[in-house]
Known about the structure:
Blueprint: E1 2-8, H1 14-24, E2 30-45, E3 53-55, E4 59-69, E5 72-80, E6 86-91, E7 96-107, E8 111-118, E9 123-130
Antiparallel strand pairs: 1-7, 2-3, 2-4, 2-6, 2-7, 4-5, 5-6, 8-9
Domain PPC: 1-129
Pfam family, one: PCC
InterPro entries: PPC_dom
Amino acid sequence: MQTLPVRLVPGDDLRNTLEALARNKALGAAFVIQGIGSLNGANLRYAGINQPALLDCDLEILTLAGSLGPDGAHLHMSVSDSAGRVYGGHVSAGCIVRTTAEILLVSLDNFRFSREFDSGTGFPELSIYAQP
C-alpha cells in the first residue's frame, strides 16, 4: 500500500483530474481517503436521481472519499455553501476547483479495480481482482 498526496489547482475538474491521474500513474486500485478544498460549483448526483444537480456557487469541500481504477472513479463528497448549508452526493464531472483541493490517495499494489455492469443494480459496479 502506498500513499499519494495530491493537490489540484484552480480550474481543475475534480473528477476528471483524479481519473486522469489514476490512468497516468497506472493506479490499478486506489482509494480517496479524504479531500478538502474549495469549488466554484459542483455537480452532485443525489440518491435515487439519475441526473446530477448543479450547485452554482462557491463551496467548501468538507469530505471526499471513493475508489479509483483504470475504468474510472466512484466518488462521494459533502460540500457547504456560504450560509453553511451542507449538500452531499455522487461526484460528477463539473466540480471545478476554486483555490485548492488537497487529497490523499492510497494505492493498493496487489489489486486491480474494474467497473463491470451488474444486472442486479443496473450500474457498472466495482469488481476487485488480486494481482500477483
